[in-house]
Amino acid sequence: MSRTTYLLPIIVILAAVGLSSIFIVDEREKALVLQFGRVVAVKEDPGLAFKIPLIQEVVRYDDRILSRDIDPLEVTPLDDRRLVVDAFARYRIVDVNQFRQAVGSGGIAFAEDRLDSILRSETREVLGSVSSNDILSSDRAALMLRIRNSSIPQARALGVEIIDVRLKRTDLPAENLDATFERMRAEREREATDERARGNEAAQRVRAQADRTVVELVSDSERQAEIIRGEADARRNAIFAEAFGADPEFFEFYRSLTAYERALQGDNSTMVMSPDSEFFNYLRSDQGTRSAEGD
Questions:
Q1: Are 112 and 139 members of one domain?
Q2: Is residue 138 part of a domain?
Q3: 218 CB-near residues (< 8 Å, 6+ apart)
Q4: Which of 124, 193, 196, 285 lies 20 to 30 Å (CA to CA) from residue 267?
């Protein structure tokens, strides 16, 4: 009975010691075995691991890709237009031993503070070397890559690998928004005025060309009409000449009758002339007398 009394506490103590010497490394983490604050073992593979109870302790670090939001910061690009940049980074602990030596017992929180300082410094430096238009355009993908690449060497000293840096939002400071909008509005109005001026100039050219074309067409049409009219007059005169040559007496008779018809209309004024006027030559001729007696 007394032997059982002594053995049971010993068994419990041995079991507790055995259990405290065993720990499990999860696949999502890495572990360090510390003895009096000094790293004596690195456990990166998942599974069971051992340590000396009471003397050694286990410190675990996340092995997954972690995200860190950077507090918004103001940057001043080359054109002196201040911008407020909101960014975040993704990183991973690749060397837990170096990570422990760099951050000590501060852990992830201390490391992220160091990362914030690195990323903010590199963001200001990179974005300060370009214009605001480059930052606000699609070219900022290259700028994010530059920030990441320039931050990698400093982060590696912490045992950390920076995987990606992203600019979530890029805005103007609130106090600059109104002035910027006014400047943008003025620029758009100037561009619109220039476009209207170019449009009016083009319209003037089109109207001038149209007026010139109208003048050329009218002039050509009048020239063609004069040519046709001249050809018709020439044809008419040729016909008259041919008719006169065929029967001069009849042609003289026709011309006299035409003159009488035009001169002796009812609405004409009274004509006073001598009876022996040449106008009545045909009426005094033998042909005219015979024509009058026949009537």
A1: yes
A2: yes
A3: none
A4: 285
Amino acid identity for residue 53 in this structure = P
CA angle 11, 16, 22 (to 5 degrees): 130
For 128, residues 6+ apart whose C-beta sits below 8 A from its C-beta are 75, 76, 77, 78
> What CA–CA distance (Å, rounded) separates 184 from 82?
15
Strand residues in the chain grouped as ranges (E):
22-25, 29-35, 38-43, 47-50, 56-62, 66-75, 83-93, 160-171
Decide if 181 is inside a domain: no
Same domain, yes or no: 121 and 193:
no
Are 100 and 14 within one domain? no
The tally of domains found in the chain comes to: 4
Sequential pLDDT tens for the chain (295 residues): 456 666 666 666 655 555 567 778 888 888 888 888 788 888 888 877 777 777 878 888 888 989 888 888 888 888 777 788 888 899 998 988 888 888 888 888 888 899 999 999 998 899 888 887 888 777 778 888 999 999 999 999 889 999 999 888 877 666 665 666 677 788 888 889 889 989 998 899 999 898 898 888 988 898 899 899 888 888 888 887 777 777 777 777 777 767 766 766 666 556 566 666 665 565 555 554 444 444 4
Q: 206: domain range? A: 187-244
**CA–CA gap between residue 252 and residue 125 (Å, rounded):** 113
